[in-house]
Specification:
- By secondary structure, the protein is mainly alpha-helical.
- The chain has 13 helices and no strands.
């Protein structure tokens, strides 16, 4: 049934994956507009489709990998039910879906890079082809394989790199064909919020993961220290955005509309307080979606205000 595949795709994770592409693309549009250059909407549309395919591929692979390793055997009754463990999709069906999604992602990645770089930027085309392969391997390798990195505490750094640095800086480069010396600041902000979602997910599942020898960073730290780590992940992003806005000179020129993104600190503070007060890991689940929405809202508000008032 379609509903089973929608559940396997875990639609609530998709807004988070879009955030980096939106922010990187909007910053590029703002810079190109100010320099009198064109912004190609085709690159944006294709980049959005590709990143969504990567996310769905990752979700399919996680469902498959955790099921094969038995990690989902005690998780069926939780808020984050997996389709293979609950018997809705077979291992063979999921394996076919993973292969099909991988092929489609590769084809559309090649099309995206063709539109963005050819014929004038052949070297950059092949570099990004390699980056596309790395992204697909990262999506699959979190739980699949003999030594999946998600089982050895490396998930956080990989999410920070691919959801933050690669997503924002990569999408920015697709348009500008250059790197701004400060673009890493908003990229780090998105990466930290994305890592916060993963850490919260792992905090929720920490008891089950320890039982099945899945050594997530939260499992290595323990629930209490992982909670402190979570507060840091949620605190730093808007500090980085504020620094970036200051470095762009918006304080000096009085374009205060772009600082409206900082209003998101208020709902985020409320979320932090509620997470900090949570003692039962399973009760952390509702906050995953909320942090994902705040990350997307940050990208949208900052991107829109930059292009209208920046």
């Amino acid at each position: 049934m379609i509903s089973n595949w929608l559940q396997a795709a875990r639609l609530r994770t998709l807004p988070l994956s879009m955030s980096g592409i939106i922010l990187g693309s909007c910053i590029a549009r703002w810079e190109l507009k100010n320099s009198g250059k064109d912004w190609d909407w085709r690159i944006f549309a294709l980049a959005m489709i590709v990143t969504l395919l990567y996310q769905v591929l990752s979700n399919f692979a996680n469902d498959y990998g955790d099921s094969v390793k038995g990690t989902d055997s005690n998780r069926v009754s939780s808020a984050d039910k997996r389709t293979i463990a609950s018997g809705k999709i077979t291992l063979r069906q999921m394996k076919i879906a993973i292969i099909s999604t991988t092929i489609l992602a590769l084809l559309l990645t090649a099309l995206l890079l063709y539109v963005a770089f050819l014929p004038g930027f052949t070297r950059e085309f092949w570099i990004f082809i390699g980056l596309g392969f790395a992204s697909i391997l990262a999506a699959i390798g979190y739980t699949i394989g003999k030594k999946p990195y998600g089982y050895f505490g490396l998930g956080d750094i990989m999410v920070f790199i691919f959801f933050g640095l690669v997503s924002v800086i990569g999408s920015y480069f697709l348009f500008t064909k250059s790197l701004n010396e400060y673009i890493y600041l908003p990229a780090m902000a998105v990466g930290l919020l994305s890592t916060a979602v993963l850490n919260l997910n792992n905090m929720r599942d920490v008891e089950n993961d320890i039982l099945h020898n899945k050594k997530t960073f939260a499992a290595i730290l323990g629930f209490k220290i992982a909670m402190i780590y979570q507060m840091v992940l949620l605190q730093l992003p808007f500090i980085l955005i504020l620094i970036w806005l200051g470095l762009q000179g918006f304080f000096k020129v009085g374009k205060y509309q772009v600082f409206s993104v900082m209003i998101l600190m208020f709902p985020l503070m409320q979320i932090r307080r509620k997470i900090l007060a949570t003692k039962n890991p399973e009760l952390l689940d509702p906050f995953l979606k909320k942090i994902g929405i705040i990350t997307l809202a940050m990208a949208l508000i900052l991107g829109i205000t930059l292009n209208y008032y920046g």
